[in-house]
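Researcher: Next entry in the queue.
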Amino acid sequence: MTTDTGEPTLTVDELAARAGVTVRTIRFYSTKGLLPPPVIGPRRVGHYGRDHLSRLALIEELQHQGMTLSAIERYLEQLPTDLSANDLAIHRALVASWAPDAAEDVTRAELERRAGRPLSGEDLDRLAAMGVVAYLEDSDTFRVDPGLLRLGVELLGVPIAHETILAARTVLMEHTRDAAQELTRLFRDEVWGPYRERESDPEHVAAMKSLSAHMQPMVVQALVTAFQRSLKEQLREAFRAEG
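Model: Structure for this entry, 243 residues:
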């Protein structure tokens, strides 16, 4: 159990049961530095508390978003070391509310049904290059990104070389990653920071999640609008130079 103050009183078995993971998983996370060490009590028994439970919940959320353990390790290293269980709950709420639609594993028949048309081998290669689908070991099963499928199918009819799609995707991934990092830093310093300075309150988690949910469409729309304007200006300049 844990005390009202959140002091570490859970054994490793109790922590595993509360978190829904195995003891082996907890020990593995600890050796990887993903979990802080337990408080050693009498008889050299390790005790865990709310902070460990919250950290495990955050790791689970990050894994759900498709991050590898190595990526999660780098991600957690960037977080302040003095995060409380409430802080981690807020962070998990932000991660969950900004997450894209989860990828799904579907058969080729189901993929073609959703695409609304038959898909040739070349079509599948182009969709894979765009990051819309991924080949799985089962040759008849694919991992599909529902949010990108419609756009990817529309682009199949555009006469763009396979290599050009790959190059364009690399450019977009690199620059959107930079934008996301800067926006995250701004959100952390200007929004999350002030929340952390207030007295811990369960309502803060709900308030932060609501704020994040409202900010997401505004940020996405701002990024799309800015990109459209920049692309239009660049194309105008490029073709003007050609003329």
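Model: The mean pLDDT is 77.
Researcher: Noted, moving on.
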